[in-house]
Request: fold
Amino acid sequence: MDNKQLAEVAKILGVSEDSISAMDDEIKNSMTAVFEQVAVKNDEDKKAVFEALDNLWQKGSIYIELSEVAKSTGITIETLRSLDYETQQTIVYEFMMDSSQSARFYDIVNKALAVADLPNVAKLIGTPIRELRLLPRRIQENICGAYAMEYDADSTNTDLIDTIREMIAP
Reply:
């Protein structure tokens, strides 16, 4: 991202250039890509650019704070970034409220990791993920555990599919 693009993004979002400069290259490159992919011809295009940039700015801000969480807790930044966005936001919010609660952050991370394979399970069994998210937490953790232990990329996984379907049957 060059200085001109940086200034333009800051102006569009109404934030300081420094807040954007502090973000990692992944976010800045994505912001640059927004300009390259969307030709602004009308107000609807302007809105789309703003929303895309704003989402990236929020994500970048979360990433900056996750780095602080990683330094403070010892949880790797890779682990924190692998979590779903909602969990990342929760961790950042709680860290800003009380950064001394390391055990709480580990608990949040562990709970999120316990169901991290839910999208993969949904794909494997051909069920919308929103339906799996409605299941009790214990069942979500159990089916993700089964998936993590039994999934074989070189197999049809028919036994695993049957097992998971039995686990979620009413």
